Amino acid sequence: MNFEIKYAFFYLYLMFIERREFQNFLSKLNLEQHKSHKLRLRDVLDIRSESLKNGAPQTLEDLPWHFLRKVMALNGTARNTSLLKVASEDQGTNEDEEDMDIDDIFTVLDTDLRDSLNPLDVLCAILVCSNSFLQQQILSKMSMCQFALPLLLPALHTSKCTLMLWAMRDIVKKWRPHSLAESRGFREESLVLTKMPTISFVRMGSCSFSKSQLLNELLSPSQQHHDFFIHRDMESGNIPREIADGLVEISWYFPRGKENSDIFPEAIAVTNLRGDIESHWLQFHFLTEISSAVFIITESISEKEYTFLSFLKESTAKYYFVLKANAGKHSETLEFLNKLAPILKLNRPQLLVKDSTSNKTSAIAAIMNSSPKIVNIETMAETAQELGMQVDEDDKECESASQSAKEITTQIKDVAEYKNKNLRLQGEPWKNLAEVEKEMCQMRTQGDTPIEEYKNQLEIKLLELRVQQKRYGLTDGLNTFIKGIDQP
Ligand SMILES: *[C@@H]1O[C@H](CO)[C@@H](O)[C@H](O)[C@H]1NC(C)=O
Ligand SMILES: *[C@@H]1O[C@H](CO)[C@@H](O)[C@H](O)[C@H]1NC(C)=O
Ligand SMILES: *[C@@H]1O[C@H](CO)[C@@H](O)[C@H](O)[C@H]1NC(C)=O
């Protein structure tokens, strides 16, 4: 058998194993039926007996609902997947154990070993089981909680990973870049359209310190630590991931216009790949294409890693290595870094030590001063497509919704004029109606008219206005709108 065919079989085999793991994971959360029947916003907002018990989750099946309800309420504890331990008397009596077949025993062992699930796994499962409109809600609320957002979802139910463009469409951010400081100006823009430098953080090999913790330190304003990214010292953050490896998360830094406390003068995006780059080549390749700089966090570089990184010789991104000072095999690592230096165009300042946050902050400041690559999420989506990944907007539902929205918005040249022409009930007639209704309560200009007669006059006026309103038929804009929301 030639190499390619062998590789293809191996790949299919891996996919099969991964699918089965994903399936098992969904059944732990009792979400299996939602793989095809997606969860809708309505399902989350439904008030049921379970939604009223606001307490901590007690079983694995509670975890998705706990997350969804808390994140909808903008509660910062949404990602806490710890289970509340309840002492149960009736579980585990001898009688029960005798009745168990071997499968049950394994399930019990499995849940005994791990008290809960990694929050990133739960998040990935929820997103795969949600329709595109619920995904948009979840990401908007997560953004308000200042949680990092999933940018690339691993290939769990699809053959390639998916870029979450549509899911972020609703998010708008406001910030004060230092370049507008003189005019005291600010920018308020749609997040997916805003162009800014992107810096990526990835791990190579195993590493004894937490990359996400390092990122949180980097992005947190002084004395206000915030966990943008889940990290291993957080509640449940140390539980091994089952399905979320290969997830790329993204977070942003937005300056508040305070020269002495802002960490960076302009907005930047920071991405974080979960898992090792060697097992996630596609995601890593994507990040090298969109990023101005890639920070590779590692403890040792040997022949294998050297060969892997040599493939990047055409890459235009700038590479930084974050090392632990004097970790084991330090001299071998330095030797291979020296060999990599001409290939990746490395300079001395591109070797950073793990313990110094200021080290990384000044490196990023230097990147921002050196005319970095400026991209927005729409551009990232194009890159993703070129690399054969999926973009959530390619979904039929999103496409038709976006088509309907475009049909309406292309007609809008002047907002005020468009409103006058297309929303005819709302403008002048509505204002007049409101005034008459107000007068019916306040009776300000009644004068000498007897009260019943005055009321009668007003009622006639109201009726006339209603008749006038009814004469307007449905406008083209409204027809398109109704057709659009009627479709799905
Ligand atoms: C996480 O949830 C557990 C169980 O409900 C609770 O005991 C713990 O205090 C929570 N941790 C945080 C940081 O909120
Ligand atoms: C967030 O949820 C936790 C855990 O259920 C609760 O103790 C806390 O009061 C909530 N916070 C707010 C602001 O509602
Ligand atoms: C990072 O720290 C090291 C040692 O403390 C120093 O030699 C290097 O210049 C620093 N790099 C940057 C970019 O600040």
TrEMBL record:
The name this protein goes by in its record: Up-regulator of cell proliferation-like domain-containing protein
Up-regulator of cell proliferation-like domain boundaries: 117-409
Pfam family, one: URGCP
InterPro entries: URGCP (IPR057365), VLIG_GTPase (IPR052986)
Domain of life (superkingdom): Eukaryota
Origin species: Pelusios castaneus (West African mud turtle)
